[in-house]
Amino acid sequence: MKFTENREQVEQLGVHFLGYIFYEPSKRFVGDTPDAGLFNSDKPKVGVFVDENAFEILGLSKNMGFEYVQLHGKENPKTCGILKSQGLKIIKAFSVNEKFKFSETKAWEKVADYFLFDTKTSQSGGSGEKFDWKILDKYQGHTPFFLSGGIGPDDAKNIKEINHPKLTGVDLNSGFEDAPGLKNIEKLKQFITDLKE
Fold first, then answer.
1. pLDDT 10s digits, 56-76
2. Do residues 124 and 148 touch, judged by C-beta distance below 8 A?
3. Where is the N-(5'phosphoribosyl) anthranilate isomerase (PRAI) domain (predicted)?
4. Segments forming the whole domain that contains residue 186
């Protein structure tokens, strides 16, 4: 989320998490001086970071009221453990393609509350591209995961056909935007309805 009014509209749709990107190169970066009301939500808030210093993450999380942090870079399990020991819940993102080995997730099993499987590209998320979801069948880990990467309004049917016991949610971003960080409410509403049918 990037705009207060838009965030207020989105949270009325019954979403479970609200994400806020703290990665300056991203088009969805909340900015150095975010809108004052942007974080005033009772929904669980997720701060999204890429290779950020653990103490910076802790400070921002305390100030903004984040319950979760989503780590999209090359953070190691030790960093993850430091954040977890301070009461944060951890979503660790992995960039997936046909060559990805899910054994890479094992080192994170004890420190991550969730994994997020995104499409492997040259950038850190936000590509709008999908990976082959059949690859998810190879994941045999214990940590529940979110599906991410290029999900759009027409994907609800295919997502419902993914029969994986650890799939716990979907990350909706660029496919539901009118501009970076500005979500299209009608597209989101219809998708959520389609997903629940």
1. 999 999 999 999 999 999 999
2. no
3. 13-192
4. 4-196
